[in-house]
Design a protein that fits this description.
- With about 350 residues, the chain is of the alpha+beta class.
- It has 13 helices and 14 strands.
- The strands form two sheets. A twelve-stranded antiparallel beta sheet has the order 6-7-8-9-5-4-3-10-11-12-14-13, with helices on both faces.
- The radius of gyration is 20 Å and the shape is globular.
Length: about 350
């Protein structure tokens, strides 16, 4: 079966899965339009790309071109829509670990970040980098770095030079100010790979077109696309996460409308039997969520869990899942603790 056919079938499955909340997602259009207002204006600064200086606005216009090739997973987040929801406090903690800036850099995540594009890689382990867009006070950031300010994660902000760029690190994560409206962040391996790409290559996308198409889904507040066909770690994780056994491609979109976060996705497996097993495993995950809902009735405050809808068609499994804000906050707090521990590991 060709990749083109897989993409066509998965796209159909995803559209069917997304239908449950497509009408509600239309309300996000008002948020998406102004998300980058003021971020694409004229800027006289130049950025070194492929050995030549180019207008910095070229990067502002196409952040996906900064991401290195070979991504296992790529994602998009409409940060403006997220901060407009009730989950901003927990998200601030995650961003503080990935982009270690604070008030000393005149940085407020909910005010300054509009959109995020990121990738997960298997370069020298589990590596990642992300491109955050918004408005950043470059001079304040540089002053904080020169003063070796202790960041919100407890590590000092250190400035080094790599690929003709100032690279700021705190612990094992860092960032590079590419333009006043675009920042590259990630672990050191991921960032250096992206900077090498800018230094030696033309500014053009290496993200597969089917992933770009999904990330561009109209009115989706977030999207994630993954190709795990050649990732041994995924197969080894099947013991803990049975639904990943035989998994090849992942497509997920969603929004931040009530009850909190709504997911719609399609998973493609190697064959129909693996897909059938994956569908059963997903329904078992729903049972775990049901237990969390039961805990809510005992006073744990996670909130109710609406039913997950799972449907299999040949090698594809489509699903929709709405999660209440209480459970999402719990998951985000766990993610923030993990991100902080990763950031502090050297």
């Amino acid at each position: 079966m060709t990749r083109t056919l897989l993409h066509s079938r998965c796209a159909t499955a995803l559209r069917r899965a997304a239908g449950a909340f497509a009408l509600a997602a239309l309300a996000l259009a008002a948020l998406a339009a102004p998300a980058l207002a003021g971020c694409g204006g004229a800027d006289d600064s130049l950025v070194l790309v492929g050995g030549e200086k180019i207008d910095a606005t070229a990067i502002d216009r196409d952040p996906l071109a900064v991401l290195p090739s070979g991504a296992v997973m790529v994602g998009y987040l409409d940060a403006a829509a997220l901060f407009a929801s009730g989950l901003g406090g927990e998200v601030n903690q995650i961003i503080a670990s990935l982009l270690p800036l604070g008030p000393e850099s005149n940085f407020v995540p909910a005010r300054d970040i509009a959109k995020v594009y990121g990738g997960l890689y298997a370069m020298q382990g589990a590596d990642f980098c992300a491109v955050m867009q918004g408005n950043f006070d470059v001079d304040a950031i540089r002053r904080a770095a020169d003063a070796r300010t202790v960041t919100v994660i407890g590590a000092p902000l250190v400035k080094t030079r790599y690929a003709d760029n100032d690279l700021f690190t705190a612990g094992n994560v860092g960032f590079v100010v590419l333009t006043p409206h675009t920042i590259l962040t990630g672990n050191e391996t991921g960032m250096r790979r992206a900077l090498d790409r800018l230094r030696f290559s033309k500014l053009q996308r290496s993200v597969p077109s089917w992933m770009v198409e999904l990330l561009s889904t109209k009115n989706a507040s977030f999207a994630m696309a993954g190709d795990v066909t050649s990732q041994p770690a995924v197969a080894s994780a099947a013991g803990q996460l049975p639904f990943v056994a035989g998994l090849q491609y992942v497509r997920v979109i969603g929004n931040f409308l009530p009850p909190g976060v709504n997911f719609a996705g399609a998973l493609t497996y190697t064959d129909p039997q693996s897909a059938a097993n994956g569908a059963v495993a997903l329904r078992n995950l729903e049972q775990v969520a049901r237990i969390a809902s039961l805990l809510s009735s005992w006073g744990f405050g996670y909130g109710s869990v609406p039913p997950m809808q799972v449907a299999q068609r040949e090698s594809d499994v489509a699903f929709t899942l709405p999660l209440g804000e209480g459970i999402v906050r719990m998951l985000l707090r766990t993610a923030a603790e993990t991100a902080r521990s990763v950031a502090l590991v050297r």
